[in-house]
Amino acid sequence: MRALFATDLSAASEAAIQNETSLETLQQIGVDTIDLVTVVPSNVHAGMPGMDLEGRRERALDRYQSVMEDAGFEVDTHVVRGTPHRRINGIAGTIGADLTVVGSRGKSPLENRVIGSTARNLSRTTVVPLLITRIERETAEPEVRREQLFQRMLYATDFSENAERAFEAFSTLRHATESARLVHVESPKDAGATGDEGDDPATRLEELTAQLEEWDIETEIDVRQGDPADEILAAEDEFDATTTLLGSRGRSRLRRLLLGSVSETVIARAAGNVYLVPPSRSA
């Protein structure tokens, strides 16, 4: 598997890249090649006062590359200019990445629905599965908050086609997963829309549970009522999930750029990591 690591050379990015446990977890799911990419925004120029951009990029990428090669990965580096999320998506598609990884400090102390602009834009437009690793806030030397990335998985589903596609990620993630909680949230707007008549959510979740238990993943189901985003976040907290797995689009017919509000809210407010699976490219 090939993973693309996006870095802005910040302390948060460095924490995600240099965390040994997280790197070992990626190896567990089959990642053996990593592409490091840093994007220089178009409005930033090397000649700007006080900015040794070229030297800083080279030193940081050399250091990151050494860490990852020492951990056993094959590593390529990319330094490009442009709009970060567009260039990252473009490289991911060009190299055939199986996964994009980006670090985010998550909740802003000023506005709890704000996440880093690159992570937010990637979550709206990603062409491959996206892992947003949650980094500690308000510390000079931040760490990954849930370094055992896929150990305890919370899977949220509305039984849509894209949610089913997200569930398929377990075929790879299972090599690093010990337990999982499968959650479906019923809301007034969803009444009668979850499946065939008489096919209740608990039954459908039990069917998914059978698959995970074949892989020796301890699994439980959770059917809740209320606001989907709020209930998913509550389930994450109760289960102490290391990562929440969900699709980037449910039953909405809006184009992918307009990410469903549930996914975007979860990404912004989750305490742990989020693994987001986009629709297939042919969708």
Q: Indicate the percent of residues in helices.
A: 25-40%
* Spatial strand arrangement across the major sheet: 3-2-1-4-5-10-9-6-7-8
| Alpha carbon gap, first and last residue | 23 Å
Strand content: 15-25%
* Major beta sheet summary: 10 strands, mixed
Unreliably modeled segments: 106-115, 194-198, 252-259
Radius of gyration computed on alpha carbons: 19 Å
Assigned CATH architecture of the largest domain:
3-Layer(aba) Sandwich
User: With helices defined by DSSP (H or I, 4 residues minimum), what is the helix count?
Assistant: 10
Mean pLDDT: 82
CATH H level, superfamily name of the largest domain: HUPs
Global shape: globular
Would you state the CATH class of the largest domain? Alpha Beta
CATH topology of the largest domain: Rossmann fold
